[in-house]
Design goal:
This protein has about 500 residues and is of the alpha+beta class. The protein is about 30% helix and about 10% strand. It has 13 helices and nine strands. The strands form three sheets. Strands 3-4-7-6-5 form a five-stranded mixed sheet, sandwiched between helices. A two-stranded antiparallel sheet has the order 1-2. Strands 8-9 form a two-stranded antiparallel ribbon. A hairpin with a 4-residue loop joins β8 and β9. The radius of gyration is 22 Å and the shape is globular.
Length: about 500
């Protein structure tokens, strides 16, 4: 998306004597990544400098300069010229790809579960969106035990070793359909590469405005539940302390939007500031053809990315089931929080909750069983390490993927008490709603595992709630009678829109 010169790996920070104390204690050879609390000190922003840069008045600032950006034909990203169509905010990606092209062996370098392959060769001093990828003497010497948990490491290496992940054996037609659909639609390594390259270069440019900031890839791109058409979620960390989302975050995002609209307009398309409870800048990268949502200091998004990633890989039936449910909801137009229905995050939590509440649970409560690994006060640079020690869950539940899928629809169609109960993955059970404004008079209540807010607050109209509940009931009846995934999710059409 952006140039790839030999100086790409050089941190674009001002000289040491001009910096704040943010990196004063960081060794010069440490790769940019999630930094510890002792390194992360409140950033002092000079908004006059930022505005001066965006307005072209560079004479008023010495520390911040912007270089012209030009795309180099030698970029390692290979992007299809196929036309991209849009429906609302949901992007329909790579529609011209044949149905069976993306089938890969489970231990292949090209599957998302493998360590990212060597297709993208970056300079030696590379940038990363997550801490598990750091390969430096500092991190090798500092508390990196040899752990053998169920969660694959998130890292980029030039010569990776294959990571093999298992999938359940399908013994019936419906389970086989779920499994094949998952293999065709799951996010591939090339998809992750596109997002990571965009993140790397955007961080480089944003740091010219906010030198101490870091940009992180979060959400479905890293939590194990991504699809080929998943958007990219980015979190811009400007300081460790919370940011006022109504004022400070909006001011920062306004400057980022102006940067995208002016200096980066050749590569960034339609940057839009959306003033939600957590404001975001939504934009499209013209080169990777990926749509992104960028927020400021939403730390909970980093925490829940690794919580969900642990759930995704601790039981081999979880990822196929979640992906099918997400695609089902999208097909029936109930998977868009901006339109008053369920977000993908809420859908994932609903699936996890269901799997936790079965007579023989498929999943435990990670926050109950491993509280030290998912402490909401844990410093950011430790978040990726904790899941590595967690072993696979020895579930005694022998249900097939097809049986679990039917049970999921039945649970929310006939068993869950929408009026009085709240979904809690943290507690691994349905609990009574608290009597306060966050939960009172809400149609759907789903607890965010860390900050304990309602992730389904967007469903505020009875008409939309009735639509959601009606789809659960209808899909349960159809699937129970026909045992064919096509009756609730036309597979060929859904695969083209993966």
């Amino acid at each position: 998306m952006f140039p790839n010169p030999s100086s790409l790996g050089c941190p674009p920070f001002p000289p040491k004597q001009q910096r704040s104390s943010f990196f004063d204690k960081v060794p010069p050879n440490m790769l940019p990544t999630l930094v510890s609390q002792q390194h992360l000190i409140e950033t002092q922003f000079n908004f006059q400098n930022a505005v001066a840069v965006l307005s072209g008045n560079l004479a008023s600032t010495r520390d911040v300069t912007l270089q012209p950006v030009a795309y180099v034909s030698g970029s390692p990203v290979h992007v299809s010229d196929a036309p991209i169509s849009f429906r609302g905010r949901k992007r329909l990606s790579e529609q011209s790809v044949p149905y069976n092209v993306k089938r890969h062996r489970l231990h292949s370098h090209n599957s998302e579960t493998a360590v990212v392959n060597q297709a993208v060769l970056l300079p030696e001093e590379r940038r990363y969106s997550f801490p598990g990828s750091v390969q430096s003497p500092l991190f090798r010497a500092h508390h990196v035990p040899d752990l053998t948990g169920c969660v694959p490491l998130v890292r980029y290496t030039l010569f990776p070793e294959p990571t093999e992940t298992t999938l359940p054996v399908a013994k019936d037609k419906l389970s086989q359909q779920v499994l094949e659909f998952f293999q065709a639609c799951q996010q591939q390594t090339c998809d992750l590469h596109k997002k990571e390259i965009c993140r790397t270069q955007l961080q480089r440019e944003i740091q010219r405005l906010f030198p101490n900031s870091r940009l992180f890839l979060v959400g479905s791109s890293l939590n194990g539940f991504g699809t080929r058409s998943s958007d990219g979620d980015l979190c811009l960390m400007v300081k460790e302390e919370p940011v006022n989302q109504k004022t400070e975050a909006r001011n920062i995002l306004s400057l980022v939007q102006k940067l995208f609209s002016t200096n980066l307009s050749t590569f960034i398309e339609r940057p839009q500031l959306i003033r939600a409870k957590v404001p975001i800048v939504r934009f499209r990268d013209k080169v990777s053809c990926v749509e992104f949502d960028l927020n400021v200091n939403s730390v909970v998004g980093i925490r829940n990315t690794f919580l969900l990633r642990t759930y995704a890989y601790m039981e081999d039936r979880v990822r196929p089931l979640v992906l099918v449910i997400k695609k089902w909801a999208s097909f029936h137009d109930i998977n868009d929080a901006s339109r008053g229905t369920l977000s993908s995050y809420s859908l994932v939590l609903m699936v996890l909750h269901y799997l936790q509440t079965l007579p023989e649970p498929v999943l435990p409560s990670l926050q109950k069983n491993y509280p030290e690994s998912f402490d909401p006060t844990m410093q950011l640079h430790h978040i990726h390490e904790a899941p590595r020690a967690i072993p696979p869950f020895p579930s005694k539940n022998g249900s097939s993927l097809g049986e679990l899928l039917i049970g999921f629809f039945k649970y929310y169609a006939t068993e869950f008490d929408w009026s009085n109960q709240m979904i809690s993955v943290r507690e691994a059970k349905a609990i009574l709603r608290p009597d306060d404004s966050e939960w009172r008079n809400r149609f759907i209540c789903i607890e965010e595992p860390f900050d304990r807010t309602n992730t389904a607050r967007a469903v505020h109209e009875k008409q939309k709630f009735d639509l959601i509940r009606g789809q659960f009931l209808k899909s349960w009846h159809l699937l129970q009678n026909k045992k064919d995934l096509n009756c609730i999710l036309p597979l060929r059409a859904a695969t083209l829109n993966r």
